[in-house]
Write a structure and sequence with these properties.
The complex is a heterodimer of chains A (177) and B (194). Chain A has 177 residues and is of the alpha/beta class. Chain A contains eight helices and five strands. In chain A, the strands form two sheets. A three-stranded parallel β-sheet of chain A has the order 1-4-5. With 194 residues, chain B is mainly alpha-helical. Chain B has a two-stranded antiparallel ribbon. A two-stranded antiparallel ribbon of chain B has the order 3-4.
Chain lengths: 177, 194
């Protein structure tokens, strides 16, 4: 029985690291194919868009604009920071990032928790009732998951580990021309 | 072939040898290839690098003399393996040199991302990035934290971390510990109750 490559959640949020693993392996077309074949649209917070399109790097910028123009990635600008579920999710994400690296929470910024903020925003605003988060940042995801469970959003978020996802996609499509 | 250096090598000799190799693209490439191929012959090494077989022989000989490679067979065809490098450099801080650094240096020309990173930050910058990459592989740190610490773009940090992750997983997988989520939960809960 072949497992679904992509979770059947309504929402799909990707982190910077997911885009980069495909991009540096020249596999973005493959990623596009995977999502468009399944009618999936990847959402990114504006912060992730900014990270993927820095002004000052001397070499190539990942083609995230092309992906947006082609319609398989969409930037979501609004994160509802004022909502208590969103803010406590981001707070817990920051705590997890700090704990994983043995740092003080004061070293961790709001922007480090932006993927969590977007996840919580989508659920709280009922834009979707389930979200898959694609990232290699396991600590951050643990913060997202626990915060949302504490606020009653059980089983509505799912982690897709970025590097595992890349390997699985490659394996699945390896024998297709 | 020259004799190997027998017994324990003086740390200063190891430092000088490693320092010379790090700054010699042909030699660092050969060392890295031996690490990758495990116990290759000279011919097998030469098939994978940009030098002639004669040059490879000379470089292998040199690397054996300085104690970075050792022969594993007495009969032809001679096979070689990399001797483990256990070199820690300490001034007011400490850095441990490992084969990961040498393999990464060997890929400066063949890997665009590594090459650009070294252009911008030097070999010591690469060494620093490897320290972050070891944490990154264990899901302890992130590109955002590294980027802020070093004042570099997140994209640059994420890219080099992923390149180095590949090398660490291939050449030093035993060093990688899986993140203990239960322990992390406990740390966070303890902090929350303060």
């Amino acid at each position: 029985m072949s497992e679904a490559l992509v979770p059947s959640t309504e929402g799909h949020i990707i982190d910077t690291n997911l885009f980069i693993v495909f991009e540096r392996n020249d596999a973005l077309e493959l990623l596009e194919r995977v999502v468009t074949e399944r009618g999936v649209e990847f959402l990114i917070p504006e912060r992730v868009y900014d990270e993927l399109t820095p002004e000052e790097l001397p070499y190539r910028t990942p083609p995230v604009d092309e992906a947006i123009d082609a319609g398989w990635i969409r930037v979501v600008e609004e994160i509802d920071y004022a909502d208590p579920v969103v803010s406590s999710t981001m707070d817990l994400v920051r705590r997890y990032i700090a704990a994983a690296d043995g740092r003080s929470e004061h070293d961790i910024e709001q922007t480090d928790a932006v993927v969590g903020g977007l996840t919580a925003t989508l659920l709280v605003q009922e834009q979707v009732d389930s979200v898959a988060v694609y990232t290699s940042d396991r600590a951050a995801f643990r913060g997202i998951e626990r915060a949302l469970v504490e606020h009653g959003y059980d089983d509505q978020v799912q982690l897709v580990r970025a590097f595992d996802f890349f390997e699985t996609v490659q394996d699945r499509y390896r024998f297709e021309s | 072939m020259s004799q190997t250096t027998a017994g324990d090598q003086h740390p200063l000799d190891t430092m000088l040898a490693v320092s010379r190799v790090l700054q010699n693209p042909s030699q660092v490439q050969i060392y890295a290839r031996v690490v990758e191929l495990e116990t290759p012959t000279v011919a097998e090494i030469a098939a994978e690098v940009d030098s002639s077989t004669t040059t490879v022989y000379e470089n292998v000989d040199q690397l054996v003399t300085v104690g970075l490679l050792e022969p594993v067979t007495e009969t032809q065809p001679h096979r070689f393996r990399a001797r483990p490098i256990e070199l820690t450099v300490q001034t007011d801080s400490e850095y441990q040199i490992t084969p990961v650094l040498l393999v990464a240096c060997a890929r400066v020309d063949s890997n665009e991302n590594i090459g650009l990173y070294v252009d911008r930050h030097g070999i010591s910058g690469l060494a620093t990035a490897i320290e972050y990459a070891r944490s990154y592989v264990q899901a302890e740190t992130t590109a955002r934290l590294m980027a802020r610490d070093l004042d570099i773009p997140v994209l640059e940090a994420e890219t080099i971390l992923q390149e180095l992750r590949d090398i660490i997983l291939e050449f030093d997988p035993e060093s990688v510990d899986e993140l203990d989520m239960n322990k992390l939960d406990a740390v966070v809960d303890a902090n929350r109750s303060e």
